[in-house]
Specification:
The chain is α/β, with parallel strands linked by helices and about 280 residues long. The chain contains ten helices and nine strands. The longest helix is centred in the C-terminal third of the chain and has 14 residues. The N terminus is likely disordered. It comes from Paenibacillus elgii.
Length: about 280
């Protein structure tokens, strides 16, 4: 449920004390549109994060999905529990999504998530390729959706996501679809796991080590940003492969070019020169 104020993340915890203003979906056409998009990647299990009053929970179950409705506000959890009654296919979990364990089997997410913890929620779903998250249809702030889908990618963490997933700003959503309406524009963000990732999941930590360091200064020229690991001869080969000037900003590269850089490093650069694996960027 989007919030009308940016508040301290408090380690990303969604509690009644630090999220007082909640904006619930009040337009059935928006619910239908989200379900329509979710059908494109059907999975038996979907998570409704920040289920609130159940605007998505009940229609998802009626469409045949097994729904894990996650709500950390006891007031909404109690209301939702009463509304669910004997409804089949729904399990209500009263918990902080950022602290709870995720399902072990493949799952999707269809949710109107809290704006203040959007990045943390997506990070939990996509930071580690081993998480069996497969697809998402999410209400997020329009500005966040634009940042997650922008080209080129200048944020290492977002780049890591996009090596494994396709992120798309499906459409903007008017604040009028919520009650009360938020003060910011909203959007539907869709997420689909790539059939063929651009970096092997087993190499993801090493890849993140590379891009976290290389993108510290997105405007830095390519030869300077990569010169710590690649020799001059290797850089000469690399710029020919990428078809870019050696002085091009490192932040101007696309996902496939980054995949080529990483593959070149693995094949030609001595392992002792490789960046340390696992550096997760919070930029």
């Amino acid at each position: 449920m989007p919030k009308n104020k940016r508040q301290s993340r408090q380690a990303g915890r969604f509690t009644p004390s630090n999220f007082s203003g909640q904006h619930l979906i009040c337009d059935k056409s928006l619910v239908r549109r989200m379900i329509e998009l979710a059908r494109l990647s059907p999975l038996p299990l979907v998570l409704d994060i920040g289920a609130g009053a159940g605007a998505l929970t009940l229609p998802l179950a009626q469409e045949g999905w097994q729904v894990l409705a996650i709500e950390n506000d006891p007031r909404y959890a109690e209301k939702l529990r009463g509304k669910l009654g004997e409804a089949e296919g729904i399990r209500l979990v009263e918990a902080d999504f950022l602290e709870m364990p995720l399902p072990r089997k493949p799952f999707g997410v269809v949710a109107n998530i809290p704006f203040a913890i959007t990045t943390s929620v997506l990070g939990k779903l996509m930071d580690h390729p081993a998480v069996p998250f497969r697809h998402g249809v999410l209400i997020v702030e329009l500005g966040a959706a634009r940042r997650f889908t922008a080209d080129p990618v200048t944020h290492a963490r977002i780049l890591g996501w996009r090596m494994q997933f396709d992120l798309k700003l499906a459409e903007p959503v008017s604040p009028d679809h919520f009650s009360p309406p938020p003060r910011v524009q909203c959007a539907i963000l869709t997420v689909r796991r790539k059939k063929e990732p651009l970096v092997r999941p087993s190499d993801h930590a090493r890849f993140m080590g590379l891009v976290t360091q290389a993108l510290r200064v997105p405007g830095a020229p390519l030869h300077a940003a990569l010169g710590l690991w690649f020799t001059p001869a290797q850089l000469k080969h690399l710029v020919k492969l990428l078809r870019v000037d050696r002085s091009a900003p490192i932040g101007a590269l696309n996902e496939r070019q980054w995949a080529a850089i990483f593959e070149t490093m693995i094949r030609y650069v001595e392992p002792y020169r490789w960046p340390k694996a696992g550096g997760l960027s919070k930029r």
